[in-house]
Amino acid sequence: MKTMRRLVPLLAGMVLLLSACGGKSDLSALKPQGPVAQEQFNLMKTSISIMALVVVVVFAICIYVLIRFRRRKGDTTIPKQVEGNHKLEIVWTVIPLLLLLILGVQTINTVFGLSKDYSQDKDAIQVKVTAHQYWWEFEYPQYGITTAQELIVPTGKKISFEIASADVIHSFWIPSIGGKIDANSGVSNRMYLEFPKEGVFKGKCAELCGPSHSLMDFKAKAVDQASFDRWVAAIKQPAKYSDDDAIKTAFENKCLTCHAVGETNTGSSAPNLTGVGSRLTIGGILYNDERPVEENIKEWVTDPQKVKPGATMPSAEDLGLTSEEIDGIAKYLANYKLDY
Amino acid sequence: MDWLTTVDHKKIGILYLIAGGLFFGVGGLEALLIRIQLIKPMNDFVGADTFNELITMHGTTMIFLGAMPLLFALMNAVIPLQIGARDVAFPFLNALGFWTFFFGGVLLNISWFAGNVPDAGWTSYVPLASPTYSSGHGVDYYVIGLQIAGIGTLLGGVNFMATIINMRAPGMSFMRMPMFTWAIFITSALIVFAFPVLTVGLVALMFDRLFQANFFETGSGGSAVLWEHVFWVFGHPEVYILILPAFGVISEVVSTFARKRLFGYSSMVFATVLIAFLGFMVWAHHMFTTGLGPVANALFSIATMLIAVPTGVKIFNWLFTLWGGSIRFTTASMFAIGFIPTFVMGGVTGVMLAAAPADYQYHDTYFVVAHFHYVIVGGLIFGIFAGLFYWWPKMFGRMLHEGLGKITFWTFFAGFHLTFFVQHFLGLMGMPRRVWTYLPGQDFDTMNLISTIGAFLMGVAVIVFLINIFVTAAKPRHAEADPWEDGRSLEWSIPSPPPEYNFKQLPLVRSYDAWWRVKREGQAEMPVAEPPGPIHMPSPSIMPLVMSIGLFIGGFGFMYDKLYLAIGGIGITLVCMFLRSVFDDHGFHIEVEEQERGVRS
Amino acid sequence: MSAHQHAEGLLSHEPEKATAEGRNKILGFWLFLGAETVLFGTLFSAFVALRHNVGDGPTASELFELPTVFAATMILLFSSLMSVFAVQAMHRHQVKAMIGWLVATVVLGLGFLGLEIYEFNTYVSEGHKMNTSAFSSSFYTLVGFHGAHVAFGVLWITLLILQILKKGLTVVTAPKIYVSAIYWHFIDVVWVFIFTVVYLMGKVAG
After folding, report:
1. Which of A24, B129, B592, C134 has CA atoms 20 to 30 A from the CA of B415?
2. What phi and psi values does residue A281 have, to the nearest 5 degrees?
3. Within a 10 A sphere around the Cβ of B180, how many other Cβ atoms?
4. DSSP B593
C-alpha cells in the first residue's frame, strides 16, 4: 500500500547511507578506544538492543493493523467495540518492566563502577583541568607543571581528573575515550579515564559557553610511559626565550602579562606556552599539519577574535605589537619545541 | 473590536491559534537559518553570536510561544464543548491568559529589533546568563518575556482545572470524560505545580541581574548548579505538559477514525496520571554530567526508565484501538497514526538517554537534539496537526482540504525523519549541540547536509498547510455538526461552529462516548438536562488587553532601569485589577427567541 | 450561571457557595494556592541550599532577634484568628461584626509589616543587604516575597471592607471575603514555616 511504497525506499536509503558510518576512531563514541568508553558503549548496545525489540514489535503491530483493518470502500459496518483486555494489559506492563530490569541492573553497575575515585591512588596520574572561555588548562600537581590545549598522558595508567571552570560552565569530553563531565564554577568534579592505546584523540567542549563554544577543541595525546617522562622533564626545563633581544623584550612585556613559559606560574589567565611549537594546533583549531606553525601563530596573534569570536585575548593592535614583533614572536614560539 | 475584548473560549482559542501559529513560524524561520549555517563545515552564513541567539530564540519561541499556545488553542476550542459546558470557569482570566502570553511573546521577540537577543540557550544556564558573562540586555528579555508569558499559562492551568472539576454536564462523571479532557485536566495540574518553579528561577536570575543578588554568583557563595535544579524541576514537567495533550488528541482521533471505542480507557487514565506524577521525580536526568554523584544518577536513571512503562501502555492501547477497527485515512488520522511509530522512536532514545553512564556520552550532543525533536515534533507537532485537521470544522465551520492536507502530511513526515534521524548518529560520532560550526574531516558533513534538506522539506509542508488554510477560508461555512460522521464526544452534537452559548440546553450524559451512544440508540440529538431558558453570558472586556500592556510596559521599565515605566506599567495592571473587583460584571442574557434564530459567535 | 440571590433579601448559611461563580472562585483560588505553595517551596529550597554561604556578611544567628520575630509571629497568627471570626460572622450574616473583625485583621497585618520593615532596616545597617551574599539574597527574596504577599493582602482586604460598606453582603461579595480569608490563612501558614526554617533554625545552627 501507499505507506509501504513511500516509506520503504526512504528507510532503505537511510540505512544504506548510515551503514558505512560510525565516525572517526579518534572522535566517535561508537569506536571506543579505551575501557571507559567501551563500558559506556556496551551499555548503549544493551539499551539499543532492548529498544530495537520494542520498536520492532510496535512497528509490526502498527503495519499489520494498518493493512488488515483499513476500511474497504463502501464499508459502513460498525466494528465490535472492545473495552479492553486485562490479560494483554498485564502483558504489556510486565514485559517492559522486565526489560527495564535488565537495563537497570547494568546501568547501576556501570554508574558505580565508573564513579571510582582515583584521586588518592598513588599509581594514578592526577590532572587538574580548568576550563576557560575558550581554552583548556591542564595542571599536573604531582609534577608541578601546567600546560594547555594538549593533554599528554601515559598509556596503561588511570588518569584521575579534577575538573572545574574559571568562568562559565563548560564540559570536558573526549568521546572515543569516555563520557563527559561538566566543568562547574566554584566546585570541582572528579572523573577517571584510561588510555590503553597510543594516539591522538579529539576533545570537545560540550556545554554552551559563549560564541566560540564550537571551537573549543582540545587534544588528548596518549604516549608510552618513557615518552611521558621525557615530556615532563622537557616541560620542567627552564624557559627558552628568543635570541633576538627586541623580540624577547616585546614577548615579556606584551605576552607574559597573561601567558607563562617555563616553570613559571600556574593558574595564569592565558594558556601556558611552553613547547607550543610541538603542539598539534594553535588556538585549538588551527592545525599545524595543514599550515606551518609560524603562520598559524601569526594568524592567531594578529586577530584572535577572527579565529575565535569572543576570545578574551586582545588583538595585536590592542597590544601594540608591530608586524616585526609578531613575525619574531611567531618564529620564536614555532621553534619552541619539546623533545619527547 | 470584538476580538480585542472577547472572553468567549471559542474566540480565544482562535486567537491562540493565530498568535501561536505566527510564533511557530518565527521559530521555524530561526530553525531554517540554523540549518543553513550548519549545511557545511566552517560556514559563515551567520556569525557565532547570532547563531547562539538563533538557537536560544528557536527553542524558547517554539516551546513557550509556539507549541504551548497551539495546545491552548485546542484546549480552548474543545474542552468546554467536550464536557457540555457553556464556557470555562473564568472567562475573563482566560482572555487575560491569552493577552499576557501574547505580550510576553512580543516582548521577547522585540529583542531582535533592540539588538539585544538572549543567547544563553533556552535553558539559560548560569554563569553564562549571569550579568558578568551576559552583560547586555539579551537575557533580560528572556527573563521578563517568559515571566509575563508564564503568568498567562499559569492562569490557564488554574482555569481548566476548575472548569473540568466544576462544570461538567450532568451525568458526566470523571470516568465518562473523553480522553482529551482527561489529558488536559492532568496537564493543567502539571502547569499549576510546575510553572511556579520557573517563576522563582526567573525571579532569582532577574534579581542577580538587576539587583546584584547572589543566588548564582559562585564568587559570593551562590550556586550555578542551583539554577540547573530549579530550571529542570520546572523543565521536565514542562515537556509532559507539552506531550500529554497530544496523547489526548491521538486518543480521540484514533478512536473516531477506527470507529472503535478507546481500548483500555481506565488504564489510559491511570497511565496518564502516573506519567504526570513520575514526571516530577526525574528532573536530574538532565544533569547526569553535572557531578551529582553515583547514587543520585542511579536513582534518577531508574525513575526515568520507569516512565516508559505507562507510556508503553498508552502506545499499545492505541494500537489495539486500531486493531479490529475500520480505519479511515484522513489527514487527521494519518498524523495520529504517523505519531505512533515516530513517538515510539523518540521514546526509546529517551530510555537510552536514561541510562546515566551512556548519557555521559550522549549528553549535550546531537543525540539529545534528535531525541527531543522526535518526541516534540514527531510527537507533539504531529498531534497538533492531527488535532487541527480534526477540529477545524468545529472551530471554523469549514473542513480543511484533504488533498492539500495529505501533501502536508507526507512532506512533513519525510522532511522530519530526514532532518532528525541522522542527528542521532552525529551525536554518537562526537558532534556536540549548540555548535555554530564544525571542522571538516570529522565525517559530519554529509549528515548535516541531509538534515538541512529535511528542514526545508518541513518548511514546504508548513507552506502547503498555510495555503490550505487560505483556500479553505474562501469556502463557505458548510460543515455539519458531525462532519466526520463518527464523532463520539459531545462537541460533535452541536453545530459547526457552535452558537455563542454552545448548548441551548445542557446535555444529559449517561455514558462514556456520550454522543456515540446516543447515535447508536437512534437519536439525532443529545437528551437535555434542563428546560430551555435565557442563557447568562459573561460580558466582554478590554481589561485583559490593558492589563497585559501594563505588564509589558512594566517589563521594559525593569529591564532598562526606568523606574517610572516599571511603576507605571505595573500600576496600570493593578488599577485594572481594582476596577475589575469594584465594578461587578453581571453579564448579559441571550433570550430563547435569539437562541432559536441561532446566535453565531 | 445567575448572579441573583435565591430569594429576595435572604442569604444562605454559606453565601459564598450559593452561586456557581462563587463555588468556581473558591475552587480556583485553592488551585492558585497550590501553585503558591510550590512557589514558596522553591524559594525555601533555594534558601536552604544557600543559607550557610554568608560571605563577608553576618550569619543568621548573629542577625536574628528572636523576641521581635516572635512578636511578629504572634501578631500575624492573631490576625489570622481575626479573619476566622470575620468569616464566622459572615456565615451568621452579622455584617457589622464581620467588618469589625476584618478591620482588626488589617490592623494586625499592618503591625506585622511595620515590624518587618523595621527588622530589614536594622539588618541593612548591620551589613546584611540584598547583594551581600547568597544567604542574604535568598533571605530577602523569601521573606520579602512573603512580606509582599502580606502587603497585598492588607490592601485587598481593606478594599473589600470598603466594598462591603458600599454594596453590603451579597452572593457576589461573599466569595471575595471567603477567598481573601483563605489567602490570609495561607500567608500565615507560610510564615510559620519561615519562622521555623529561617529564624529558629538559623538562630540555632546558622
Report:
1. A24
2. -140, 165
3. 27
4. H
| Residues B230-246: tens digit of each pLDDT | 999 999 999 999 999 99
User: Where in chain A are all domains bearing CATH 2.60.40.420?
Assistant: 125-232, 245-334
From C45, C54, C163, residue closest to B582, measured CB to CB: C163
Minimum CA–CA partner of B296 in chain A: A111
CA B96 to chain centre: 18
C85-93: long-range contacts (C-beta < 8 A, 24 or more apart)?
A: C86/C177, C86/C181, C87/C177, C87/C178, C87/C181, C90/C15, C90/C16, C90/C169, C90/C174, C90/C177, C90/C178, C91/C13, C91/C14, C91/C15, C93/C11, C93/C15, C93/C169
Q: Which residues contact C151 (CB under 8 A, 6 or more apart)?
A: C113
B chain contacts of residue A87, beta-carbon cutoff 8 Å = none
ipTM confidence? 0.95
Q: Say which of C36, C50, C172 has its CB closest to residue B223.
A: C50
pTM: 0.95
| Choices 2.60.40.420, 2.40.330.10, 2.130.10.10, 3.40.50.1000: CATH for A125-232 | 2.60.40.420
Q: How far is B193 from chain C (nearest CA, A)?
A: 5
Cell 488533498 belongs to residue:
B403
d(CA B356, CA B360): 6
Distance from CA of C19 to the nearest CA of B (A): 12
Share of chain A above pLDDT 70, in %: 92
HSE at residue B225, side-chain half, CA atoms within 13 A, is: 21
Rg (CA), chain C: 20
Q: Name residues whose C-beta falls within 8 Å of residue A274's C-beta, 6 or more positions apart in sequence.
A: A147, A235, A239, A260, A261, A262, A336, A338
| Averaged pLDDT for residues A100-112 | 97
- Helix or strand holding residue B253 (H, E): helix B224-258
Count of Cβ atoms closer than 10 Å to residue A232 Cβ:
18
CA distance B360 to chain C (A): 26
Q: What is the pLDDT of residue A266?
A: 54
Q: Coil, helix or strand for B28?
A: helix
Chains A and C touch, using 3 or more CB pairs below 8 Å: no
- List the one residue out of A135, A54, A70, A131 whose CA is nearest residue A310: A135
Å from C69 to nearest chain B CA? 24
The answer to whether C137 and C196 are in contact (CB under 8 A) is no
How much of chain A, in percent, has pLDDT values that exceed 90? 88
Q: Do B49 and A309 touch (CB under 8 A)?
A: yes
Domains in chain C with CATH codes: 15-205 (1.20.120.80)
Residue B307 phi, psi (nearest 5) = -65, -20
- Subunit contact B193:C38, Cβ cutoff 8 A: yes
Cα separation, C128 vs C140, in Å, equals 10
**SS3 assignment, position B461:** helix
Mean pLDDT, rounded, for C16-28: 95
Q: What counts of helices (H) and strands (E) characterise chain C?
A: 7, 0
B161 contacts on C by Cβ (under 8 Å): 31
Mean pLDDT, range B177-188, rounded to an integer:
98
| B483 Cβ contact list (under 8 Å, min separation 6) | B393, B399, B496
- Region B544-549: mean pLDDT is 97
Beta carbons of B197 and C163 less than 8 Å apart: no
Question: Within the 310-369 window of chain B, which residues sit less than 8 Å (CB to CB) from chain A?
Answer: 312-313, 315-317, 319-320, 322-329, 337, 340-341, 344-345, 348-349, 351-352, 354-365
CA of B16 vs chain C CAs: smallest distance (Å) = 22
At C7, the pLDDT band (50, 70, 90 cuts) reads: very low
Using the beta-carbon criterion (under 8 Å), do B349 and A80 form an inter-chain contact?
no
Judge whether B440 is closer than 8 Å to chain A, CB to CB: no
- pLDDT band of A22, cuts 50, 70, 90: confident
